[in-house]
Amino acid sequence: STLLFPLYEEHGENFIDMLDGVFSFVLLDTRDNSFIAARDAIGVTPLYIGWGIDGSVWISSEVKGLNDDCEHFEIFPPGHLYSSKQGGFKRWYNPPWFSEVIPSVPYDPLALRKAFEKAVIKRLMTDVPFGVLLSGGLDSSLVAAVTVRHLAGTKAAKRWGTKLHSFCVGLEGSPDLKAAKEVANYLGTMHHEFTFTVQDGIDAIEDVIYHTETYDVTTIRASTPMFLMSRKIKSLGVKMVISGEGSDEIFGGYLYFHKAPNKEELHRETCQKIKALHQYDCLRANKATSAWGLEARVPFLDKEFINEAMSIDPEWKMIRPDLGRIEKWMLRKAFDDEEQPFLPKHILYRQKEQFSDGVGYSWIDGLKAHAESNV
């Protein structure tokens, strides 16, 4: 945080766009008692703002820090700053894709791969023990594969060793546990499997809602296994994990994307998905881990990587069975290296499991039954 002051001194509020990474902060200028508050581009870190009855302004990373003192509070919008001098919000994050104009840059698989590798390498700068969350799906498997490839030679490796730790959660016998084990064996990670029961999940729901501060059904469904896993990861002494959030939004990875009538509609949908991430997967990834003091880092949501991926002609993101293109084909193809494979082909081209389904199908059913009997 001490690095912010010289930047602020020199550039004023314009310094925020020079920051890379994720943040929520309030900066007080004691010269005139003015302050600015700001939140990272995509809203990977949570932030809320409220107003007291006396006109006071309150800022907190959790809603529960505001509800006693504020007559009104709201989500602090990602990519914005609030200035006490202006008394309002201003969007500091203004990337080319934000306007939702259809891009036309030709697809260059190698450039996309390099951009993602760079995003992962950036997140290996750490002096704490860390690992990767590995569900065995495409996104987390790529995160793990790239991390394994670049771990040696980092300060972290010198300090903690070159063996990467990977973590997976699921019900006994679930699709994710099986797939993750296979990827972990291929990559040679030190793999940790955590199982939970439907009852464990149900018992945790109240805490999950307390920490995530949402009633969004899908978010809670997926936050619960992640919350249970984070506690166990933290108890092993691991302080940070790298995770695969954001890929489905950027590349149109959800199964309903096969209904996109044309590339224009698909592109607009990906833009809107990224803009909404802060209420869903970012909220889950941050709060389910932070509840136990674990930090999650998300390379797919790197500012430069998003710019790269969102500048490509969205024709390449279209699901085209006639051309043998399944969802996220563009990302899969970028890592399809015959000489030095990142992943085995069948994993690289494995179809999507939604996170909460991948942890075991009976989790959703058990949850529905529990809700039915109680509500």
TrEMBL record:
Keywords for this protein = ATP-binding, Ligase, Nucleotide-binding
Where do the Glutamine amidotransferase type-2 domain residues begin and end? 1-87
Gene Ontology cellular-component terms listed: cytosol
Report the record's Gene Ontology biological process terms. Answer: asparagine biosynthetic process
Q: Which Gene3D superfamilies match?
A: Glutamine Phosphoribosylpyrophosphate, subunit 1, domain 1, HUPs
Q: Is the Transcription regulation keyword given for this protein? A: no
Does the record bear Ligase in its keywords? yes
**What GO MF annotations does this protein's record show?**
asparagine synthase (glutamine-hydrolyzing) activity; ATP binding
What pathway, per the record? Amino-acid biosynthesis; L-asparagine biosynthesis; L-asparagine from L-aspartate (L-Gln route): step 1/1
A Pfam family that this protein carries is Asn_synthase
NCBIfam families named in the record: PRK09431.1
Protein name (record): Glutamine amidotransferase type-2 domain-containing protein
